[in-house]
Automatic annotation (TrEMBL):
Its EC number is 5.3.1.5. InterPro entries: Xyl_isomerase-like_sf, Xylose_isom_bac, Xylose_isomerase. It comes from Paenibacillus sp. SYP-B3998. Belongs to the xylose isomerase family. The lineage of its organism: Bacteria, Bacillati, Bacillota, Bacilli, Bacillales. This is Xylose isomerase. It catalyses: alpha-D-xylose = alpha-D-xylulofuranose. The gene is xylA.
Length: 437
């Protein structure tokens, strides 16, 4: 059965094309900075928003029109697999991502739930064998079911913790079976509502123990995927422990976990944390922790995670600038953790949305590569910090300076002359590259 009749495989037609079902900037074979676009971007479809999203919101019921919605139970799960591979193939996207409960329904017991999961994993394997689609990463949903009301790895209930550990174990086995290149941990409810009833130290200690168990079991079953943690500051809990890149890195360092993880960073989560996406990417890159991207954007006028498809060119330029500076994304990718708007309910809107996001990141890649090739920002930064390359500045950087030597230098009362940061000029230069590339 097919689910997107009338839509052919999406092709690159270039900037002059008026075809809404064609790429204007994403040309997978085009060479940028020594690699193809496909190699740079490693796009992925998010199973949860794309296949299970219904268009609901806190004030309204389902609006999405999906050809598979008349099914239920395992039949619905099987239909979604067929639809997923049809959509992914027609979009020419190489990867997909999922939570365990996205692909298969829960049963009355853990045994029944795992049996459901095995059935769908077998079907996914069949579709992977007959296509070029691969699994970028999988993860476990330990936030939707009411059992996780107090968290999973940070729960106050040892029975829930044990269930969570069993779910992680199964997730790692599924990842190995499907050849996942990464495995993600997202602490959907790993946080607190109030400190008045929270033992934060115990919760964080237990979360670290769960991560160590996962590391040990992955080694036991020879699952060599890159482990990723995805920071998010709030929503659904008031405060989540993986607040942002810096907080997450500090946690990993504190528990000796840093060498085992990198970060999967999401643009909309950066917004919720009060940061720009490029800030989060820069922090991760500085610490050698940049692992993968969840590509979306938020609405700055709304205070929640809107998960819109990325169309902000300025943001994608600066994001890809960080990725290129990082030497690439490695085993990670650019996953569209994004959903069509509630009013965009037709099946073809899924194609329009992904095309828009893929073109936006492709344009960002091209502009970022040109900026780096011309050393535009590097030259500006080198010039701004040139005082640290000679004299007293060089002594500071080399570690030779002391408070006494710096005082002696300051007592010479040489005139201090600051220079303008040229903030507006720099932005106008970036704009010119964006408009001309």
């Amino acid at each position: 059965m097919t689910y997107f009749d009338g839509i052919e495989n999406i092709q690159f037609e270039g900037r002059g094309s008026k075809n809404p079902l064609a790429f204007k900037h994403y040309n997978p074979s085009e060479i940028i900075a020594g690699k193809t676009m496909e190699e740079h971007l490693r796009f992925a479809v998010s199973y949860w928003h794309t296949l299970t999203g219904e268009g609901t919101d806190p004030f309204g019921a389902q609006t999405n029109i999906r050809a598979w919605d008349h099914f239920s139970g395992l039949d619905l799960a099987k239909a979604r697999v067929e639809a997923a591979f049809e959509l992914i193939t027609k979009l020419n996207i190489p990867y997909f991502c999922f939570h365990d409960r996205d692909i298969a329904p829960e049963g009355a017991t853990l045994q029944e739930t795992n049996k459901n999961l095995d059935t769908i994993v077998d079907l996914i394997k069949q579709n992977m064998r007959t296509s070029s689609v691969k699994l970028l990463w999988n993860t476990q949903n330990m936030f939707s079911n009411p059992r996780f009301v107090h968290g999973a790895g940070t729960t106050c209930n040892a029975d829930v913790y044990a269930y969570s550990a069993a779910q992680v174990k199964k997730g790692l086995e599924v990842g190995k079976e499907l050849g996942a290149e990464n495995y993600v941990f997202w602490g959907g409810r790993e946080g607190y509502e109030t400190l008045l009833n929270t033992d934060m130290k115990l919760e964080l200690d237990n979360l670290a123990k769960l991560y160590w168990m996962a590391i040990d079991y992955a080694k036991e079953i020879d699952f060599d995927a890159q482990f990723l943690i995805e920071p998010k500051p709030k929503e659904p809990t008031k405060h989540q422990y993986d607040f942002d890149a810096a907080t997450t890195i500090a946690f990993l360092q504190n528990y000796g976990l840093k060498e085992h993880f990198k970060l999967n960073l999401e643009a909309n989560h950066a917004t919720l944390a009060g940061h720009t996406f490029e800030h989060e990417l820069r922090v991760a890159r500085m610490h050698g922790m940049l692992g993968s991207l969840d590509a979306n954007q938020g609405d700055l006028l709304l205070g929640w995670d809107t998960d819109e498809f990325p169309t902000d060119l300025y943001s994608t330029v600066l994001a890809m600038y960080e990725v290129l500076q990082n030497g690439g994304i490695g085993k990670g990718g650019v996953n569209f953790d994004a959903k069509v708007r509630r009013a965009s309910f037709d099946p073809e809107d899924l194609f329009y949305a992904h095309i828009a996001g893929m073109d936006c990141y492709s344009k960002g890649l091209k502009v970022a590569a040109k900026l780096l090739e011309d050393r535009v920002l590097e030259n500006i930064i080198d010039n701004r910090y040139r005082s640290f390359k000679e004299g007293i500045g060089a002594e500071i950087v080399s570690g030779k300076a002391t408070l006494r030597s710096l005082e002696q230098y300051a007592l010479q009362n040489n005139p201090i002359r600051n220079e303008s940061g040229r903030h507006e000029l720099i932005k106008s230069i970036v704009n010119e590259y964006l408009l001309s590339e």
